[in-house]
From TrEMBL:
Keyword Membrane belongs to the record: yes
Presence of keyword Thylakoid: no
Record-level GO cellular component terms: heterotrimeric G-protein complex
Complexes and interactors: G proteins are composed of 3 units; alpha, beta and gamma.
Signal sequence range: none
Name the record gives this protein: Guanine nucleotide-binding protein subunit gamma
PANTHER family: GUANINE NUCLEOTIDE-BINDING PROTEIN GAMMA SUBUNIT
First-listed, main subcellular location of the protein, grouped into a coarse class: membrane
């Protein structure tokens, strides 16, 4: 095995050790926590409550028409 192959293998082993040490939780617990977080922060979500007209940087610019 050449040195680049050895380096790749060492990096892979280090990555696998890191992934193996990550604490796991059940999907049902993660889903419940995510749902609770979403419900707690729904009032702050601009996609749900909208953006106030005066502070919306994406609103259509007002044009001035002189007749």
């Amino acid at each position: 095995m050449n040195s680049s192959g050895l380096f790749s293998a060492v990096r892979l082993v280090a990555q696998l050790k890191l992934e193996a040490s990550v604490e796991r939780i059940k999907v049902s617990q993660a889903a419940s926590e995510l749902q609770q977080y979403c419900l707690q922060n729904a009032g702050k979500d601009a996609l749900l409550v909208g953006v106030p007209g005066g502070s919306n940087p994406f609103r259509e610019p007002r044009s001035c028409a002189v007749l």
